[in-house]
Design goal:
50% of the residues lie in helices and 8% in strands. By secondary structure, it is mainly alpha-helical. Strand 3 and strand 4 form a beta hairpin. The chain is elongated. The protein starts with a helix and ends in a 10-residue tail after the last helix. Mean pLDDT is 89; it is low at 134-147.
Amino acid sequence: MHISAKADYGIRALLELAREPARPLTCEAIASSQEIPFRFLKSVVGELRRAGLVRSQRGCEGGYWLGRPADEITLLDVTRAVDGELITLRGEPLSGLDYPGPAAGLPGVWRAVEAGAAAVLGGVTLRSLLADGTAGAAGGPVRTGAA
């Protein structure tokens, strides 16, 4: 399975915004704090804005805020916003995948993997990561509720 840089950077950017939701952050500040390439982050944030996960304001008082409360944004939301399909096979969605003969059961396995990943990512909100992140930062495990 592959987790794209876009998904990773998007989630990290949103976590920065969720940490202090009352004040806007610039892409420069987020990129610096998370050690993310600025130009790449700028394009990812544009996709997050189009998906309604962030909102922006121009000007000296401007920057980016979360588009919804942190407890309403899941990792699945972010991943789908920047990558589209969660899992693809050779760039194609799994929905229409069909194999003949002895490999006929394999598409069901791939779809089950996708469903499992969607369940895990859909069960983790930005808020839960912020709450659990303090334990993770101190060396303890970060719990997401998934086994």
